[in-house]
Amino acid sequence: MVKDRSEPDLDRELSDLPPDLRWREWMRRIEAVLFASASPVPRDDLARVVGQEASVDLLVEDLAADLEGRAFEIAQVAGGWIFRTRPAYAPAIRAAADVGDQLLDLSEFDVAVLAAIAYHQPITRDGLKDIFGKEISRDLLGRLHARGLIGTGPRSPRRGAPYTFITAEQFLVAFGLESLRDLPDREQLEDAGITAL
User: Fold this and answer.
1) Is the pLDDT of residue 102 over 60?
2) Whose CA is closest to 28, among 123, 20, 112?
3) Which one of 21, 94, 118, 133 has the fewest CB atoms closer than 10 angstroms to its CB?
4) 110 and 99 in contact (C-beta within 8 Å)?
């Protein structure tokens, strides 16, 4: 059963406020929701805290402009928005904050397997073996799954119905992608000297 997250006491329209204060309050509501959320917040969820005539996209744009020069920004990833620290501050965070469990700590080969899954999903272990010319260990796939980067896709229609692998929402978040369409196309990879997957 889906929980109704609407708040009966929340005045979404704020019709008693002048337009500029109403807009500012809607921006602050979006800011509060993004600040409190650990995962990307979709447009429909943000629309629950603003008036019917308000444009969530424009509110987010204005909020992003307000954040210029700050250590964090709004990023559009995985079909929603999330706050994240600007990359320039990563060394300071690693030096002072306990973020060990948030680091992906992926090897070059782990990233290559992730890329293969992203470009060929749903793909079986045999499909990955064809790409890399060697068996891909269940341990590696298990680590990627445990980090939430990949998930199990539909069973392959082949004999034995092997499992397939697909990328998960956390993959998009970890690599700052709004969707899989944001992956570089294969020709760009080849032009950059990276072997096509």
Assistant:
1) no
2) 20
3) 133
4) no
Res 3: pLDDT? 45
Task: Name the residue type at position 167.
Answer: T
pLDDT of residue 5: 60
pLDDT digits (tens, 9 = 90+) for 65-92: 999 999 989 988 888 999 988 888 888 8
Q: Where are the beta strands (DSSP E) in 118-188?
A: 150-152, 165-167
Say what the pTM is: 0.61
Reading the block at residue 35, the tokens are 């600040």
Burial zone of 185 (CB within 10 Å; 0-12 exposed, 13-18 middle, 19+ buried)? exposed
Structure tokens at 134: 């060697």
Compute CA distances 190 → 110, 123, 196, whole Å: 20, 21, 6
Structure tokens at 26: 């809607």
